[in-house]
Amino acid sequence: MRYVSTRGQAPALDFEGAMLTGLARDGGLYVPETIPTFTETEIAALAGRPYEEIALRVMQPFTGMDEARLSDLIARAYQNFGHDARAPLKQLGPNHFLLELFHGPTLAFKDFAMQLIGQLFQDVMTRRGERITIVGATSGDTGSAAIEAFRGLDNVECFILFPEGRVSDVQRRQMTTPSEANVHALAVKGDFDDCQAALKDMFADHGFRDRVGLTAVNSINWARVLAQVVYYFSAATALGAPARKVSFTVPTGNFGDIFAGWIAKRMGLPIDRLVIATNRNDILHRTFATGEHRKEGVSPTISPSMDIQVSSNFERALFMAYDRDGAAVAQLMDELKQNGGFPVSQGAMQALREDYDSGSCSEEETAATIRAMHARTGETLCPHTAVGVKVAEEHLGESLMVTLATAHPAKFPDAVEAATGHRPALPERMADLFDLPERMTSVPNVVGDIQTLIEERIN
Ligand SMILES: *Cc1c(COP(=O)(O)O)cnc(C)c1O
C-alpha cells in the first residue's frame, strides 16, 4: 500500500514512511493511493468479534504489516482500556445510539489512535535501532493521550508543551503524574498558540530536528486516522450492518475522526450519512451551508477540543472531492493562507454533500442538551458529546443514528456541573489522580530555551 500527498508534489511512501513523516514535504497530508474494500460477507463476519480482531482485519490491508506482529501491537495498545468492549454502545432513544469512546487511559477518544501509535513507533524504532523525540503542543486532550501512550517506552522521549494555567486540573494531572523518566510535561508561560508556534519553529530548525530525531504525532498523522476507522466497523456491525444502514454524527474539530468514517464507508461499510457537528467555531458547518471555506477568529467554548480556526484534516476530504487533484488542493490551501478562505467548486461541494451533512450547536444549546439528556435518559454527556447529540437529533431519519461520545464527562466537570448540578466522578480505576505527586517543568515562552532543555534531557 502506497501513500500519496494531498498536494501532489511529495514522494509516495509506504505505511511506515507516512507514519514517521507526518506532514508531507510539500505541506500536504498523506492519503492511501487506493482504498481496500470488503465484501458484504467479510463485513458480516466482523459482527460480534472482539475489538482487537476487528482492528486487525480493518487495518492490516493499509499497513502491509505481518499479521502476527500487528496483532501483538493491537493487543498491547488496548489492554489498558477500562471496558472489555473497548468502544461500547449505549441506547439514547428508539433510533439513536451513543458510541462510548472514552474508556481509554485518558478518557477521550484520542487514546484509540495514540495508544496504537505508541506501540507502532516503538516497534519501528527498536527494529531500526534508532531513537526519536516526540514533541507535541496541546490544549489538553492530545498531550495527555500522548504522554499516556509513550510513558515507559524504550527508544522514545516525549515532551509535551501546554499553556500554563489554561488546561483543566484533570488534563494537567494526566500529563504531570506519570513518573516515567522518558515523559516530560512542560508548562509554557503563554497560550496554546504560543505552544504551537514554538513547535513549528522547532520543526523549521533542521539542525535541531536532525540532532534530536524530532517527530510529531499530531492529528494529521495517517496512522491516527487509520486507528479510528476501526470503531465505525465495530459499531455498525454490532447494530446489524451490512444488512442495516447506519449514520454517524461526529463532534468535529480537526476533521480526523469523521474522515475515518468516510474511509470506512469507502471500504464498503454501509454508512448512510456522516454528520459533522461543530460548536460555535463552525467553519465546517458554514462551508456546507455556503460553499465557501473561510476562517474566522476562534472563540473559547465549553467544548474546547473543538475550538479550531483551521480544520487540518479537511484537506483530505477536499482532495477526494476534487478527484485527487493535488495541484487544485495546493492552490486552495494557498488561498486559505493568503486570503483567509476560498470558494469550493460546485462539483466538489456536490461530492462532499453526497457523504456529509452538518450542523452547529451554541453554548446555551450544549448546556441545555447535557441537562435534557441527563433528565430524559440518565446519561451524563461531556460537552463535546452534547454538541454531537444535539446535531444528531436534528438529523434522525430512516437509518440508525450513532453519535460518537468523544470524552468522559469527568474530564470536563465544571461544564457538566453547571448544566446538571451534579459533579461527574472519575472512573474508579483512576480515582487516585488527585493524590499522585505532580512533576512538570515551567518554561518561558522562548523557543531557544525550550530547545536547550530538550537537548539536555535527552543527552
Ligand atoms: C479532539 C477532540 C474532538 C475533535 O476531533 P477531531 O478529530 O479533531 O475532529 C472532539 N472531542 C474531543 C473530546 C476531542 O478530544
Automatic annotation (TrEMBL):
Residues 2-78 form the Threonine synthase N-terminal domain. Pathway: Amino-acid biosynthesis; L-threonine biosynthesis; L-threonine from L-aspartate: step 5/5. The modification N6-(pyridoxal phosphate)lysine is found at residue 110. Its cofactor is pyridoxal 5'-phosphate. It comes from the Bacteria. Its EC number is 4.2.3.1. GO terms for molecular function: pyridoxal phosphate binding; threonine synthase activity. It holds the Pfam family PALP. GO terms for biological process: threonine biosynthetic process. InterPro entries: Ser/Thr_deHydtase_PyrdxlP-BS, Thr_synth_N, Thr_synth_N_sf, Thr_synthase-like, Threonine_Synthase, TrpB-like_PALP, TrpB-like_PALP_sf. Residues 90-329 form the Tryptophan synthase beta chain-like PALP domain. It catalyses: O-phospho-L-homoserine + H2O = L-threonine + phosphate. Keywords: Amino-acid biosynthesis, Lyase, Pyridoxal phosphate, Threonine biosynthesis. Belongs to the threonine synthase family. PANTHER family: THREONINE SYNTHASE FAMILY MEMBER (PTHR42690), THREONINE SYNTHASE-LIKE 2 (PTHR42690:SF1). This is Threonine synthase. It comes from Palleronia marisminoris.
